[in-house]
Amino acid sequence: MLTVAGRTGSVLLGCAALAVASLPLFASPYHLELVSTAVVFAMFALSLQLLVGVTGLVSLGHAAFFGVGAYAIHLMGAHGPSISVFITLPAAVLLSGLAALAVGALALRTRNFFFLMTTLAFGQMLFFVFHDTPLGGGADGVFVARPTFSVFGLEWVVSRQDRPTVMLLVNLGVLVAMYLGLAALLRTMFGRALLGIRANEHRMRSMGFDTYWLQLGAFTLAGALAGIAGHMWGMTQAFVSPELLAWHRSAEALLMILLGGLGALHGPILGAFAWVGLGEVAQLITERQRLVEGLVILAVVLGLRHGLAGIRLPSLRRGMPEAEPATRPKEVSP
Prior knowledge:
Helix 10 crosses helix 11. The strands form two sheets. The protein has a two-stranded antiparallel sheet. It has a two-stranded antiparallel ribbon with strand order 2-3. It is globular. Helix content is 65%, strand content 3%. It has twelve helices and four strands, in the order αααααβββααααβααα. The protein is an all-alpha fold and 334 residues long.
């Protein structure tokens, strides 16, 4: 059963968010961009968690919606000046959501391994649409104009020097909103129905739930959230390429979920930061980066059943005397 961080976990997550927000005070622009990339990957993995951890659907085509969201910036501003983020972001959500709706309507007619392979096939189809056609700038990708922060004719101009700080804070705000939105969703009837489908789909059907439409709603919503992550990637990097839609991106998101913890909503966030940090450290110590990453992930999967989210911190009450357990009064025989 997927769990949401309790009171203590929420406090720790809030402290972590404040720590990330304070990085511009002392971190270099390179490290700000590195953490900003980790935040975007956390959005992407969190969107996939809605399928894997909540609904029980494992998809290898989720990166397609991530890429569609990133390419939305290019498609809207390919032949003109940059457009407001308040236009490009809803467009990315709409395009990714529609793509997920079309793919999910067909893929959800299959089950288990066949569903996995169907999502992979549709993801690769979208990959080659941008890879082999001039629609997305070809195989080499294309630089895009960053959307502007403008509304009602008022524009906030961000200097090149301040851009890493601004993008980090904007990405962090989007991630926090996404996490809180999904946490609230799990408390609704829709969210509980999805958890029920993950536990026992046949029982949910016997109770009168139309599991197909519930799963399609989750698949579409997950695709739209992936589109948000893709949009923020394109806005952060100012570059998009067909590689964003490749199947290995979906596999990386699955690894982030396993690394952070499949049974916790905040697991993908921990996994994304650990994944980016692991890749950075592996590059410094060896040329065989993937080998190091594989060994570490294997150790985490074998040693931590619930991932990084399953690590329990030492109790603060360990050094305090424990209260004596309450005992039942002895019964007096007549």
